[in-house]
Amino acid sequence: MLSAENLRKAFQASDGAVDVLRGVSLMVAKGESVALTGESGSGKSTLLHCLGCLEDIDSGTIFLNGDALHDLDDDGKSRIRRQKFGIVFQQLNLIPSLTVAQNLSFHARLAVRENAEWTQELADKLGLAALLHRYPEQLSGGQQQRVAIGRAIASRPEFVLADEPTGNLDEDTAEAVMTLLQDLVKEAGAGLLMVTHSERHASKLDRRLHLKNGLIA
Ligand SMILES: Nc1ncnc2c1ncn2[C@@H]1O[C@H](COP(=O)(O)OP(=O)(O)OP(=O)(O)O)[C@@H](O)[C@H]1O
Question: Which residue intervals define the domain ABC transporter in the entry (predicted)?
């Protein structure tokens, strides 16, 4: 289970401090898929980054299956990120100099959990089997998004954090990619917290959390 209690996070911008998270508490169970919605600028990406140890919090607690993430130093945070989380970023962050196959197994290799059979199974399920030797720039937007999803799941994470994984895709492709993501996460028995602007996608997940004025509404 991933749980956060009273998370606070402010940024110092050139025009003053921005209080983004003002006491956020939430819980996502293992195997549960939860949508994170909220207006643009409400702090969805910030919350995801804080939960995934990519951004330091000002105060509050974050626990993943009993481990306190808020107490970890930078090395500890990197280790947890590698071992426990699969993260799909808004800007996919595929590595341009690596092939699709190498991108798919990149995080699994870092987590020392590379498994050729599982990676091949993912490539088949994601419709990437014929593209394994291509480079990211030789793929369509939807194909790149599927590689980013496969890469996040290849390391068999306990939790997948996805920041609008279907942004920039047309409705039909987005729908197909979403279904794949949900199926793969369920099959892996992982939890999913997914930022989305789409009512339709949010309604397909088990539950929804809505961020408003720095709090879960
Ligand atoms: N590094 C930063 N420095 C200063 N302000 C920041 C920084 N990162 C984010 N912010 C501010 O924090 C607020 C929340 O940003 P965030 O990206 O988390 O929102 P969001 O809900 O994900 O938005 P969107 O739906 O548009 O992607 C915004 O007001 C943004 O301007």
Answer: 2-217
